[in-house]
Design a protein that fits this description.
Blueprint: H1 3-37, H2 44-52, H3 56-69, H4 80-116, H5 122-149
Helix pairs in contact: 1-2, 1-3, 1-4, 2-4, 3-4, 3-5, 4-5
Length: 150
């Protein structure tokens, strides 16, 4: 494969996998919110925040593309090492975004279920949901650092 193909494969994986993780995560939250509203519809604002939180992983994947493209490396003159670096960054951010988005959605869904049952767990759920988010942020930071070497 040519280096530019490797690079664009990495970009595609970065956006697709991180976006898929967000899609699953926000769906978990949304489904939990619909169930919780049957019991307690007064907390819709809390449900909305917790349902939307896993959407950030897809944004990190999309932002990763802009970070890489801002280097000017995505051109026919790209070297094999640069293409491999972009592919590696794409795989790393994509997989971490996929898994952290799904798992953060599950944390948020459980928090939504707790709020729907009458428990005051919104703040605690936000704190616990930050942990999967941290790994997506680290993967994005690594992508940023890799782009600095291109």
């Amino acid at each position: 494969m040519t280096p530019i193909v490797l690079a664009y494969l990495g970009i595609g994986l970065m956006i697709a996998l991180a976006g898929a993780g967000s899609a699953y995560g926000v769906s978990y939250g949304g489904n939990a919110a619909l169930g919780a509203m049957k019991k307690n519809s007064d907390a819709f604002g809390n449900y909305l925040v917790l349902s939307a939180l896993p959407g950030t992983q897809g944004l990190y994947g999309f932002a990763g593309y802009f970070v890489i493209s801002g280097t000017g490396v995505l051109s026919p003159e790209i070297t094999a090492v640069q293409g491999a670096a972009v592919l590696g960054a794409g795989i790393a951010l994509g997989i971490v975004g996929l898994l952290s988005g799904i798992r953060q959605g599950q944390v948020c869904a459980n928090g939504i279920a707790g709020i729907g049952s009458g428990h005051d767990v919104f703040g605690s759920t936000l704190v616990l949901a930050v942990f999967p988010e941290l790994y997506a942020i680290l993967a994005f930071a690594a992508t940023f650092m890799i782009s600095g070497t291109l």
